[in-house]
Known about the structure:
- Homodimer.
- [4Fe-4S] cluster binds at residues 65, 69, 72.
- It catalyses: (4R,5S)-dethiobiotin + (sulfur carrier)-SH + 2 reduced [2Fe-2S]-[ferredoxin] + 2 S-adenosyl-L-methionine = (sulfur carrier)-H + biotin + 2 5'-deoxyadenosine + 2 L-methionine + 2 oxidized [2Fe-2S]-[ferredoxin].
- GO terms for molecular function: 2 iron, 2 sulfur cluster binding; 4 iron, 4 sulfur cluster binding; biotin synthase activity; iron ion binding.
- Belongs to the radical SAM superfamily. Biotin synthase family.
- The protein is globular.
- 46% of the residues are buried.
- It is an alpha/beta fold.
- Strands 1, 2, 3, 4, 5, 6, 7, 8, 9 and 10 form a 10-stranded parallel sheet that branches.
- It has a single domain, classed as Aldolase class I (TIM Barrel, Alpha-Beta Barrel).
- Helices cover 37% and strands 13% of the residues.
- The chain has helices at residues 3-12, 19-26, 33-48, 90-102, 119-135, 152-159, 184-196, 213-226, 252-265, 277-280, 285-288, 308-317, and strands at residues 51-61, 107-112, 140-144, 163-165, 200-202, 205-207, 230-235, 270-273, 294-296, 321-322.
- The chain is built from 12 helices and 10 strands.
Amino acid sequence: MSPFMKLAGKAIARESITREEALSVLRSDDGEILEVIAAGHRVRRHYFGNRVKLNYLVNLKSGLCPEDCGYCSQRSGSQADILKYTWLKPDEVLSVTAAGVAGGAKRVCLVGSGRGPTDGDVERVSRTIEAIKERHPDVEVCACLGFLSDGKAERLRQAGADAYSHNLNTARANYGNICSTHDFDDRVDTVTQAKAAGMSPCSGLIAGMGERDEDLADVALALRELDVESVPVNFLIPFQGTPLAGEWRLTPNRCLRILAMVRLVHPDVEVRVAGGRELHLRTLQPLALYLANSIFLGDYLTSEGQEGHLDLKMIEDAGFVVEGAGERTLPEHRFGDVRSRKRGAGTDLPANA
């Protein structure tokens, strides 16, 4: 049995793989790539079968962000040729959302640029969430609005947000190399707040920013420690007009090794192959489905993606099926620790004290 299949066995048994084991996947050579994919696919198949969850991005507010994240086309000082506009109205969002839902999207991701939402922004987005839920009651809504504070997470949850997305992006040790206007702990704090408010935590990484293998392993392990439920794996889109415009280090096989490592570290959560897959996986895009159980349908925030009908054809041709709205994404055991209270106040049984 290959060492990678042994790691798959550990992952299926829900035994945490170590930092050294994660690094061994990243440092495998191209001659071992099929073994790596097979190991990751064994885990993916065990927990998620042949289902692929479709997510659809709606950029509510584009550009003009005050933060200086080096990878971002919307950053302060960006010269990237992108759309810039202020908040979309709920009816505009509903119109855009309809296309994604018609294409099979199970989750709509509402994203707004900026450091974090004001009270007015939260009210505006809450109305949009409520409008989507009224029109598409079976569709999950994920918000991504930057840093949260002052009860804003609770307000979004009350409006109907099912999840909140806020990527860690890279390891703590590397964070200062990509951003100076906030730090790693700021991001951890927002993920923690979202989770405490009852929203499903979605947080992932960006590969291809000049990071080391150790950084990729460390951010994957940090996400595991936060117990996130969805891990988007982005591959840098090196926009002209941003500090990382010249970063073109990724190869298709490198991307597949990264996805396999994330799958083995996070065996039973949603792993999403996200932005940049078209640029860096290229003709090997379908192989990502053997590792990730989730993708974005169509376009991204400021860049165009593969045409939606080609995404659907890719899924079909590779032998996978689109996950239905009524199907639960995460495996049953992820919910097994939740027990309804049957003792104490309101019952005849003594309280737990």
